[in-house]
Amino acid sequence: MELFGHDITYVILISLMMAGFAAGFIDSVAGGGGLILVPSFILAGLPPQLALGQEKIVSTIGTIAAIRNFMKNRKVVWSAVAAGIPAGLFGSYLGARTILYFDPDTVGKIILFMLPFGIVLSFIPKRVKTQEDTDNLTKSVILFGVPAAVFVIGFYDGFFGPGTGSFLILALHYLLRFDLVSASATSKLFNFSSNIGALGAFMLAGNVLYGLAVPLVAMNLLGNHIGSSSAMKYGPKLIQRTISISLSLLMISLGYKFLL
Question: Of 80, 56, 228, 59, nearest to 149 (Cα)?
Answer without folding.
Answer: 80
